[in-house]
Design goal:
alpha+beta, globular, two-stranded parallel sheet, 2 domains, about 40% helix, 3-stranded antiparallel β-sheet
Length: about 130
């Protein structure tokens, strides 16, 4: 998640707008490779939303390490809405990436989206266990 700019401000405004509905719950897992893949600005906004909406917003950091043997970081993006629709790909969600790069994102629905949702829930649980 990038630095403070119009795109990041718009992203967080959309998230906060969704959270204004008391029935909305958002679990977000963000890559944090320790080398700035998640900016201090983004971490601060995630923390503030978590404090403002503690029963609805659940951010977590996925601490991928490029030097952990494979020399790679997590770059995949998964978004699941209501367990029924998933977006799967590697596209960065930014204007510059979508205008300057050849990106891919697939929309998946039905049982496969439910499976992806369950997989993300298991990953989220494992990340929470690690912090205890």
């Amino acid at each position: 998640m990038g630095r403070k700019n119009n795109e990041m401000n718009e992203f967080f405004s959309i998230i906060e707008g969704l959270l204004e509905s008391p029935h909305m719950k958002i679990n977000i897992i963000v890559n944090d490779d320790g080398r700035g893949s998640t900016s201090r600005y983004a971490k601060g906004r995630l923390d503030r939303l978590a404090k403002k909406y503690p029963e609805q917003f659940f951010p977590q950091l996925f601490e991928s390490k490029p030097d952990a043997g494979l020399g790679k970081i997590l770059h995949a993006k998964l978004t699941v809405v209501d367990g029924t629709t998933a977006l799967v790909g590697s596209a960065n969600i930014s204007k510059s990436a979508l205008e300057s790069n050849y990106e891919i994102m697939l929309k998946v629905t039905g049982p496969v989206a439910a499976d992806i949702s369950a997989m993300l829930a298991r990953l989220s649980d494992k990340l929470r266990e690690k912090k205890v």
